[in-house]
Amino acid sequence: MSTTATFYHAGCPVCVAAEQKIAESLDTNRYDVEIVHLGEAKERIGEAEAAGIISVPALVIDGQAFHINHGADLTDLK
């Protein structure tokens, strides 16, 4: 059984680099990885906030938010 890992980003160069590294690094046998581009899926910003995301790129695994770098605040994406 795999765990969902959700990667939130905004499409900036920092985010795209992080997305590529996440895709290369996470074991797809352990994690179902979902990529969410918040610039294109603004309706999911509330979901990201509820998960504890304050800036992107960020990864949520098992309900825990991991901020990877500071590309953009969620408030800037609204």
UniProtKB/TrEMBL annotation:
Coiled coil: none annotated. Transmembrane segments: none annotated. InterPro entries: Thioredoxin-like_fold, Thioredoxin-like_sf. Residues 10-66 form the Thioredoxin-like fold domain. This is Thioredoxin-like fold domain-containing protein. It comes from Adhaeretor mobilis.
